[in-house]
Every structure is written in C-alpha cells, then in structure tokens.
Amino acid sequence: MLVEILGPGCKNCQTLEARTREALSALGVEADVREVTDVAEIAGRGVLRTPGLAIDGEVVVSGRVPTVPRLQELLTGSR
After folding, report:
1. Which of 10, 27, 43, 48 is catalytic?
2. Which of 3, 5, 6, 13 is catalytic?
3. pTM higher than 0.90, yes or no?
C-alpha cells in the first residue's frame, strides 16, 4: 500500500502524517508512507486545499485532518 501525504509540510500536514502512521500501526498494516511537497504535483492531483491524503494513487482527503478512527476506515477501504 502506498500512502501519500500531500502538502507543503505545514503543521496540519505533520499532524495528518502522525495520525496516519498511528492508524496504520493500530491496524497492523504495513504501508509505504511518503510526503509529496511539490505544489504543481499536488494541484495536478486536484488538491486545492492541503493537507491531502492519497491511498494507492487515489486522493481520499483534501483540506482537513481526519480522526484516527476515520483514517482507519479509509485505510481499510471503507471509503
């Protein structure tokens, strides 16, 4: 699984990454978590408000930081 945090590295981006890692750990799921900070790439994916979260190339969150339980739902496919 590839999980991407889309944003410039702001506080919300850092919070999203920490919560995502917490959700993955709680689920016992291994994933490659990457940061995407290139503004052109982020905009090219349709994310106009950061942070964003993409799972296996699909943007599932934009402009907010979900709770850990919601992230667990997203990571297990309950989108």
Report:
1. 10
2. 13
3. yes
| Residue 10 appears among annotated catalytic residues | yes
Res 77: pLDDT: 85
Q: Which domains does the chain have, with CATH numbers?
A: 2-75 (3.40.30.10)
HSE toward the beta carbon, residue 21, CA cutoff 13 A: 11
Q: What is the 3-state secondary structure (H, E, C) of the chain?
A: CEEEEECCCCHHHHHHHHHHHHHHHHHCCCCEEEEECCHHHHHHCCCCCCCEEEECCEEEEECCCCCHHHHHHHHCCCC
